[in-house]
Structure formats: structure tokens, C-alpha cells
Specification:
heterodimer, A: 321 residues, mainly alpha, 13 helices, B: 559 residues, alpha+beta, D-Maltodextrin-Binding Protein, domain 2, Dipeptide-binding Protein, domain 1, Dipeptide-binding Protein, domain 3, 3 domains, six-stranded mixed beta sheet, five-stranded mixed beta sheet, 17 helices, globular
């Protein structure tokens, strides 16, 4: 991997993020629905609306609002939530850890479990275990996350009683340190598994296909002929080469995980950004929605860059011409 | 009722001139009584005895976003913050004013001047004393600017708020104002502290997430979107209350998950239950139920079908009446509400007993045959395929089909389906248009681009709050939940003015009766169902009330 490639790939971040910001600004402002009407709820009169519009600068022309907003963002000022009256950065940052924990755990789980499932099925072709695991993977891949989540709650939380039904910690808990970590992990398990399920399936299927091709190739036959142990053959000669497309997919799946988190957070009452995005969109709390869009956009774009860099490292032929 | 006779006995300080509802006036000085027993009556059968201590975990659907009920009418914010605050008066289960921060009041000049005597033993959660200056500040700087409902109803009528001494507040109106006492509870007018909010922007004030109130509970911890923890206010002015040590509110956005959390024992209070789950919970045997039309986000709500009177097909009252006759309101109650509520019998909810009309002859009943007759007579004739087209309808081109759209929130889709089915039976075609709330409001109230719709109009505790806005000809326009029908009747406008300035129970009821007769004759709306929601809690708990102070006198035993 050359340094030039890395620098150019990173420089592309800036126009991408700016374009996303512009698109999302226009999208939310051109969508029907008026934040002030949403804020007024059932009542209020013309005087109240005028007062609020003036307060939030909504009476300015759209291009001026955009310029003001873009200028503020450059100085790391993301504005103040209409509904909460608090700085967007505070509101978003206090929910970020919960979402990072959930998506991080799901990413880790889907990568590890997906690779294991892929290797397992690829090395047992056309046998009952392969068919069984492949069948489970296909089912997981096809099942909608909200449905899977509710099933998991009914069966594993309410039915078997192994997991709590909702939330990130026990209600009213004062636990700190290890006890708290154990409590959060207990609450995390079910939503993380549900969120990871589709990704496990995706990673597993891809690994299976790639690895199987590799295991049929000449260099693997050569390695076997040399009498190497089967585990060494699979991991060193098969998996390493089969990984490149899988890594690409894992990077791209970060976006899917964030999108899935929106649903999983609602189903499990997980206090993260996804739910903030849903409620803020409904109330047209524009500063919050834009703040989250920006954060998610940057995350996904950065994840893609990291993926590309990893890919270039795995396969030195990748470079700019 | 026992409480009323007790209050009569306790009346020690007669006011100079008391004309407003007798019960209100008599209630004037029942300060002592207000404490322990006032709020705990309506909790169904008290299955457990009051015990001191313990924790109640409450499921809430949304994060409150801010814990200041004075700057918003959001149901989520009020649900989570009303335990922290008080109003000048409270409202009991019958909607009658009870002393709270004000221990007594008197009404002079035929209802144009209200003098409140405040308790002198109330302190804010930070230890500062509560005085009349707080009341004046809360109204002038916060409520009348940011509480959209109070601003709309009181803003114009109120002339001045004076504070002759630390424990007296005087409200003066230009004209007699009959409904002030219904608008002073913790939902309509929570009192916030002057020393906390002075000099800042109340909407962006840090105290909105670190609130200082006078209420039965203090805030212990607020974790956005996760949980809010309250601790008992040791210095609460109502003696012996609250019983609970701790109230924890958990944000659980999914209704189904709330029910599961109740069943698994993770929470002990649900504000409402989806109809299909209600039967299962009733059969379970572990739970108590409390059905009520009172909600922090809106009280005494009626599911109401609106006709856009600016559309030529609805100009003829007989066409509107025909559609009303086609609607079987009992089915909305049974199939959509799963029995939670009652069929609406008047434009004003039965929850406002002093204004609700009885025996309205013109209130349309389910009668499809009559509906067909009226449509035939109005010039809507059936074609071969059964749909009706105009043939001599005033203002409508011949051949125009009787077809119109029906706008609704996505969660009212069941109302739409039933509406469409019931109208197809009389030859009218309905196109359903589900719209998210912000878009719905814009389409209906700003653009007025709809034929019919369904809205949950909440009447509140007084017709001034949530009824008048639907009918005044001056209230058509860009304001959400204003006069959606575009109804204009000078006589009705006049009757509302008359009812507002009428003082005295019987006179006021008569004025509202006349008003509802006039409205029903015109049918700008069809009132379907008065909706209620069902609170659920384990049998070991009790002492709950309907209002925002639902847990003020609540307790949970161990068994």
C-alpha cells in the first residue's frame, strides 16, 4: 500500500461529507412539515408561531439559513435543539456511547461469528451440518430485524427469563464498576445478537463462497500435496485470500448496522442515537437531525476509507492509476 | 359525596362575593383537607394498604426532552415532569378545583377578579421559600409566552396579575372570566421558580434538565432516553405524602414491549395498553386497571370526523347529515378502541360535566336508510355500479361522483378503514390518506387541502381550553387543531362569548346546552367516540390518581 493512495483516499472525505451535508439540509427543509407547528402541539396562535420562527431564524430565506448553518458547523457549532433547547452536540454525545456499544458489539459479533460460520460451512460441503448452518444463515438473512427482536424478547426474555426485556441497565440501579459492566452486558446481549443476525448471515455466506473457491484452487492443492495440516491450509492459504471481499463487505455493513440500530433501539428501549433520530425527525427538530446525519455520514465514509486501506494492505495490487 | 360535605364544614372564611360553581366557592378554604386524602380516591379498588417507602417503576413511551412543564404542552414532557411541580389549584377526579399552592380564593366583580391566598409553608426543592412573586413571574415570563395552551386561552383575557403581599395574588380580567380555576392545575399552569428562571431564556435554561419545583418528588437523575429517577420530597407541604421513596420512569418506546415489561415485573405502571393486549392482561389476574379520559398530553378527547365546509360537496347540511347517519359509532368503540371509551353523545365531552349537553335531538344516530333518503333528496343518485353521482346538487357539476379523501394519522388507520367501509354501503367512495403528524397539520390547517379527516380533539377540563377553538369563525387558519371544518356561524361565536362570561353553574350549563344545539343542527363535524386509556398496575400497588400527580399518594406493598 502506497502513502499516496492513503492520502488521496482520505482527501476525498471532505467533498463527500460536504455533499452529504448539503443534501440532508435540503432534504429536511424541503420535506413537508413545519417544526414550529410540531412544537406548538395542539395549541398556540399566530403570535406564538411568529415569536418561535424569529427565535429559531426560520423566517430567513433558505440559502441564508444554509450559509449560517454551514458557517457554524465549520466552527464546530451544531446549533441548539428546537425541542430540547440544548446544544445539539451535548444531546448527541450523551447518546453516542450507547449506540457505539450496541453497533460495536454487533460488528464484533457478526465478524467473528460470520467468519466461523463461513469456515464451518465451506469445509463441510454438501453434508448435513453445512445444510443446517446454511439454512439458519439464510433464515436470519431474510428475517426483518423488528420481528426477530420481538420474537427474541418473547422467547428468551419473557419466556425463558434469561435476559431483561428492555433498557440498558436495571431500573433505578446504582451499580458502578464491574457490577455495572455486568449489568449492561446482560442487557446488551439480546439486542446485539438481534442486530448482528443479518450481518452474521451476510459475512458467513460470503466467507463460505470465497473460501470454497480458494480451497478448490491449485495453490491449495499444492499446499495439501506438501502435507501441511488441514487447519494451516484453510487459514493460511485459503482464508487469507478469501478475506479481501469479506473485509470490503464488513466496512460497508457499518452503514447497515447503524440503520438497523434505529429499529433495534426502539424494540429494546436502548437509549441511543437511533431513537433520537426517529423522534427528532417526527418533530422536525432540524438541528438534531442534521447533527446525526453528519455524524453517521462521517462514520460511514470513514469506515469505508478504513476498509479501502485494509483492502489495499491485503491486496498490494490496489492503487490509483 | 363525603368530600364535599367535609369541605362545607371546614369553610371558615366566607368570601365577600362568591358566585362561581358552588362547589368551587365552598372549596375555598379547605386547605387542611387537601393533604392526605384529597388525591387518592379514584384508584379502582384499593387492593393494598398504604405503606411508606418502596419504588415504583413507570413505563413512558418517549423521552421528555425537557423537564419543565411550563414551557411546553408536550404530553411526554408533562408525563415526566408534573410530579416535580404544583399548580395554584389541583383538580379532583370530577374536575373540581382543590387547594394546592393556593389554600383559598375568592371571586369578585362577577368573575372578573380572582384573589388567591397562597400557602405560607411551601418551599422550593432548593430550600427557598415560595411566594407570590414566583406566581407572577411564572405567568408573565414563562406560561403566557411558552405554554401554547395557556397563552392561547388566557393571554388575551387576562388584564393584570398583582401581588399585594408575599402570599396573595390577584388576577384581573377585562370581562368576567368563568373558567380560570380549571386552567390553574399543574398541567395548564405549573408554577416555576423566579429565582431559578429569572434572567435566562426559559426554553434553553439549564434548569430544564435540573428542575427545582415544589412538587411531591424531586429529580434525582435524568439519563436521556433511558430513565428518570425521582426521590420523595421530604419537605412536601402535604403532610405524610408522598408514600413512595422512589419513582423511576423508564423510556420504552414500543407499546408491545411495555406490556411484556409489565408481565415480566420490570415495570409497575403503564399509562395505556394496546386494545388487543388488554384482554390478556385482564385475564392474567395479577393486575389492577384504571380507565380514564385524563391524560398529561390531553384530557377528555373525542375522535372527531371533520368536513371541509369550503368544499362544494359538503355545503349542504343534508349531505353531512347523511354521512353522519351512515356511521355506526358503536363499531368504532368496539372494534378500534376495544371498548376503551364511550360513544360520543354531544360536541362537548361528558368529562366536562358542567358543560356536556344531554338529550340533543339532532345528534345523528346510525340509520343507513335515512342516509340513503337524504342523499337521494340532495341530488346524489346511485349509478349502475352503486356509487352516487351528482344530479342537480347545488354548486356541484352534474356527473361528479360522491368521492372524497380522508386524512388521518397512521395510527388512526383503523378509523379510516371502518369509515371507508361504512360509507361505501351508502354509495360514497373514500380515499384514505395516512399522513405523519407534522404533514397532517400542514395539509389540514395551513393549506386546508382535504375533504374529510379524523382528529382526536381534546376538550381539556373546560370548553374554553379545547372546545371553542374548533368552532370560532375567527379561528380558521394556520393554527394546528383550530377550526378544521372552516365552520362560520355568528350565532355560535356569540354563544361562546356568552358562555365564557356567564357565572353560575345552572346558567353556564344552559348557555352551553344552547350552543351545542346550534352546532349539532349544522354538523360541521361528526363526534365518534370519547376515548379513554387504561392504566395498568400490579395488585400490590394502589393509591393512584388520574392526574399529573398520579403517584403523589401511590404506594406499593411487597406481596
Amino acid at each position: 500500500m502506497s502513502w499516496g493512495y492513503a492520502v488521496r483516499r482520505i482527501a476525498q472525505l471532505i467533498p463527500t461529507v460536504a455533499a452529504i451535508l448539503l443534501a440532508s439540509f435540503l432534504l429536511i427543509h424541503l420535506a413537508p412539515g413545519d417544526p414550529v407547528l410540531a412544537l406548538a402541539g395542539e395549541h398556540g396562535d399566530a403570535e406564538y408561531y411568529e415569536f418561535m420562527r424569529d427565535k429559531f431564524g426560520l423566517d430567513q430565506p433558505l440559502h441564508e439559513q444554509l450559509l449560517t448553518y454551514a458557517g457554524n458547523v465549520l466552527t464546530a457549532d451544531f446549533g441548539v435543539s428546537y425541542v430540547r433547547g440544548r446544544p445539539v452536540l451535548d444531546v448527541v454525545l450523551e447518546r453516542l456511547p450507547a449506540t457505539l456499544l450496541l453497533t460495536g458489539a454487533a460488528l464484533l459479533l457478526s465478524t467473528v461469528a460470520g467468519l466461523l460460520a463461513g469456515v464451518f460451512t465451506a469445509t463441510r460441503r454438501s453434508r448435513v451440518p453445512d445444510l443446517t448452518v446454511s439454512g439458519v444463515l439464510l433464515t436470519l438473512y431474510a428475517a426483518p430485524v423488528f420481528w426477530l427482536g420481538q420474537l427474541a424478547i418473547l422467547a428468551l426474555a419473557l419466556g425463558a427469563g434469561w435476559f431483561p426485556v428492555q433498557g440498558m441497565s436495571t431500573a433505578g440501579s446504582d451499580a458502578t464498576g464491574l457490577a455495572n459492566a455486568a449489568d449492561v452486558a446482560h442487557h446488551l446481549a439480546l439486542p446485539a445478537i438481534v442486530l448482528a443476525s443479518q450481518e452474521i448471515a451476510a459475512v458467513g455466506r460470503l466467507t463460505r463462497v470465497g473460501l470454497r473457491d480458494e480451497l478448490d484452487s491449485d495453490h491449495v492443492r499444492m499446499a495439501r500435496a506438501k502435507g501441511l495440516a488441514e487447519a494451516t491450509v484453510v487459514v493460511k492459504y485459503g482464508l487469507r485470500r478469501a478475506l479481501a471481499p469479506v473485509v470490503t463487505v464488513i466496512g460497508g455493513r457499518v452503514g447497515h448496522l447503524v440503520a438497523g440500530a434505529v429499529i433495534v433501539e426502539v424494540v429494546f428501549g436502548w437509549p441511543g442515537l437511533g431513537r433520537l433520530l426517529v423522534t427528532s425527525t417526527q418533530s422536525r427538530d432540524v438541528p438534531i437531525v442534521l447533527g446525526i446525519f453528519l455524524l453517521v455520514a462521517v462514520t460511514v465514509v470513514v469506515a469505508n476509507v478504513i476498509t479501502d486501506l485494509c483492502y489495499a494492505w491485503l491486496d498490494p495490487r490496489v492503487r490509483y492509476r | 359525596m363525603a368530600r364535599r360535605s367535609a369541605s362545607a364544614r371546614l369553610t371558615a372564611r366566607p368570601s365577600r362575593l362568591i358566585r362561581r360553581p358552588a362547589a368551587t366557592a365552598i372549596a375555598a378554604t379547605l386547605a387542611l383537607l387537601a393533604s392526605a386524602c384529597a388525591e387518592q380516591a379514584p384508584s379502582g379498588e384499593p387492593a393494598a394498604e398504604p405503606v411508606k417507602g418502596g419504588t415504583l417503576v413507570v413505563a413512558i413511551s418517549e423521552d421528555p426532552e425537557l423537564l419543565n412543564p411550563a414551557v411546553t404542552t408536550s404530553g411526554a414532557a408533562h408525563t415526566a415532569s408534573e410530579l416535580l411541580y404544583n399548580g395554584l389549584v389541583g383538580l379532583n377526579a370530577q374536575g373540581e378545583p382543590q387547594p394546592e399552592l393556593a389554600e383559598s380564593w375568592q371571586v369578585d366583580d362577577d368573575g372578573a377578579r380572582y384573589t388567591f391566598q397562597l400557602r405560607d409553608d411551601v418551599t422550593w426543592h432548593d430550600g427557598e421559600p415560595f411566594t407570590s412573586n414566583d406566581v407572577k413571574f411564572a405567568f408573565e415570563e414563562v406560561l403566557l409566552k411558552y405554554h401554547s395552551r395557556t397563552q392561547a386561552s388566557l393571554g388575551e383575557a387576562l388584564a393584570a396579575i398583582e401581588t399585594p403581599d408575599e402570599h396573595t395574588v390577584v388576577f384581573t380580567f377585562d370581562q368576567p372570566y368563568g373558567s380560570l380555576l380549571q386552567q390553574l392545575d399543574v398541567t395548564e399552569a405549573p408554577i416555576v421558580a423566579k429565582h431559578v428562571y429569572q434572567g435566562g431564556d426559559p426554553l434553553e435554561h439549564p434548569a430544564n434538565t435540573k428542575p427545582i419545583g415544589t412538587g411531591p418528588f424531586t429529580l434525582e437523575r435524568y439519563q436521556p432516553d433511558a430513565e428518570i429517577r425521582f426521590a420523595a420530597n421530604e419537605n412536601y407541604f402535604k403532610e405524610d405524602l408522598p408514600y413512595l421513596d422512589t419513582v423511576v420512569m423508564r423510556v420504552i418506546p414500543d407499546d408491545a414491549n411495555q406490556v411484556v415489561a409489565l408481565e415480566s415485573g420490570e415495570v409497575q405502571w403503564l399509562w395505556g395498553v394496546p386494545g388487543p393486549d388488554l384482554e390478556r392482561l385482564r385475564a392474567d389476574g395479577r393486575f389492577e386497571f384504571l380507565e380514564t379520559g385524563v391524560n398529561p398530553g390531553g384530557t377528555n378527547c373525542i375522535m372527531t370526523v371533520t368536513f371541509n365546509l369550503d368544499r362544494p360537496i359538503f355545503t349542504d347540511v343534508d349531505t353531512r347529515r347523511a354521512i353522519a347517519h351512515a356511521l355506526d359509532r358503536q363499531q368504532y368503540l368496539d372494534r378500534v378502541q376495544f371498548g376503551q371509551g364511550k360513544v360520543a353523545e354531544a360536541p362537548i365531552s361528558s368529562g366536562i360535566s358542567f358543560a356536556h349537553a344531554e338529550n340533543l335531538d339532532d345528534m345523528p344516530v346510525h340509520d343507513p336508510a335515512r342516509a340513503e333518503q337524504l342523499l337521494d333528496a340532495a341530488g346524489w343518485v346511485r349509478e349502475g355500479d352503486g356509487t352516487r353521482v351528482a344530479n342537480g346538487v347545488d354548486g356541484v357539476k352534474d356527473g361528479t361522483p360522491l368521492a372524497f379523501d380522508f386524512l388521518h394519522y397512521p395510527n388512526f388507520a383503523d378509523y379510516g378503514e371502518l369509515f371507508r367501509a361504512q360509507l361505501r354501503a351508502i354509495g360514497a367512495e373514500v380515499e384514505l390518506r395516512p399522513l405523519e403528524s407534522t404533514v397532517f397539520v400542514e395539509k389540514v390547517f395551513t393549506e386546508r387541502d382535504f375533504d374529510t379527516n379524523v382528529i382526536s380533539y381534546c376538550n381539556g377540563t373546560d370548553p374554553e381550553i379545547g372546545v371553542k377553538r374548533m368552532y370560532l369563525s375567527s379561528n380558521i387558519g394556520p393554527v394546528p387543531f383550530s377550526n378544521a371544518a372552516g365552520y362560520r356561524n355568528p350565532e355560535v361565536d356569540r354563544l361562546f362569548d356568552e358562555a365564557r362570561t356567564t357565572i353560575g353553574d345552572d346558567e353556564r350549563k344552559a348557555a352551553y346546552q344552547r350552543l351545542q344545539e346550534a352546532i349539532v343542527a349544522d354538523l360541521p363535524y361528526v363526534w365518534l367516540v370519547e376515548t379513554t386509556s387504561t392504566r395498568v398496575f400490579p395488585k400490590r400497588c394502589g393509591g393512584f390518581s388520574h392526574s399529573g400527580h398520579f403517584a403523589e399518594a401511590a404506594y406499593c406493598g411487597t406481596s
